[in-house]
Amino acid sequence: MYAEGGVKSMTMREGDQAALLASVAKHFEALKQIPDFLPHLHVDYDAVEVRDSTVCDGKGVFAIRDIEPHELLTLYPASNELSLMRVEKASSKDGEKDEGAGGDDDGGAAEGVASTIKSETYVAPQPSYVMFNGHKMFGDGNALRLEADPGAPLVSGFLGHLVNDVLPPPTDATDAAYAGEYLKKTTNETNCHAVPFPSGIVAIAASKKIRAGEELLMTYSFGFDKSFMDGVNADVELKKKMLSNAFAADMKVLSVKMEQLTRESLKVHREAEILSRELLCDVAGE
User: Fold this and answer.
1) CATH topology (fold) of 16-166+193-219+272-284
2) Which uninterrupted H or E stretch holds 57?
3) CA–CA separation, 168 vs 255, rounded Å?
4) Domain limits of the chain?
5) C-alpha angle 130/134/139, rounded to 5°?
6) Separation CA 91–CA 118 (nearest Å)
């Protein structure tokens, strides 16, 4: 997989993708069973704990010591469903190559080849507890999807699904004022971000100095709510309004900031990235 440039570049034989997903799932289980190994991946899971959130009625993750920028604090669990989608390339009538990517909130794919693994305790899809691993090894379109079960027992080092957004992502596409407020707050007031590793794990890293007692907060972005994006795309005039100069500028600032933070974290934790890849290869070779 790695020698050929990841899922997007591979010519997979039948069953290869399912085998890869099974290896990723096995890697997750191994890490959960041996949390003391997480520090070798630079994840200092003892630096945070679960308390009642300050921004919502549920639980949140809090720092129990001062934390420096780019420290990895916890991982996102795959305790409900794990799925991997490979986009198929098809020739159009005019001879050009077309790539399609699609999916719905329960992990199914509208186009492409999808493989899915559900946990033994799976009851129903949990679209509100989904994280995508956007590492280039898994191709474009955030192909690897991690879904957490909010009712599952908490595991040290796997608290990523309890990290809250500073504000609930907008759901009403006509409320431009709230969408603008959301953009500004998530750009300026979040203190952590997601870091995707090639082994499938997604770590939560500090974006700035976090003081002991502060709640970890990250942005889930507009794409978190499908109804919001559908509403924007369905109305041409509304889309123009949402993409006005000021609004588009704020959106670009947020996007660039998150991309830069992710790149910097991967650079800081290059050794951990290499080790995570080696571990996945070991699991796949069993």
Assistant:
1) Beta-clip-like (2.170.270)
2) none
3) 18
4) 16-166+193-219+272-284
5) 125
6) 33
Confidence of residue 106 (pLDDT cuts 50, 70, 90): very low
> Which segment of 20-24, 103-107, 188-192 scores lowest on mean pLDDT?
103-107
Q: How far, CA to CA in Å, does 48 sit from each of 67, 148, 153, 164, 196?
A: 10, 19, 17, 14, 20
The first and second tokens of residue 38, run together, are 């997480």
Higher pLDDT, 280 or 103: 280
Q: Which residue has the higher pLDDT, 9 or 116?
A: 116
Give 133-136 contacts, CB < 8 A, sequence gap 24+.
133/196, 133/197, 133/200, 133/201, 133/202, 134/196, 135/196, 135/197, 135/198, 136/6
pLDDT tens digits, 134-180: 888 877 656 799 999 999 999 999 999 999 999 888 888 777 788 88
> pTM of the full predicted structure?
0.84
- Give φ, ψ of 59 to 5 degrees: -90, 160
Q: What residues are paired with 119 via a beta bridge?
A: none
CB-neighbour burial class of residue 180 (10 A; exposed 0-12, middle 13-18, buried 19+): middle
Q: At what angle do helices 176-188 and 245-268 cross, to 10 degrees?
A: 30
**Cα separation, 193 vs 204, whole angstroms:** 6
| Residue 170: alpha-carbon gap to chain centroid | 18
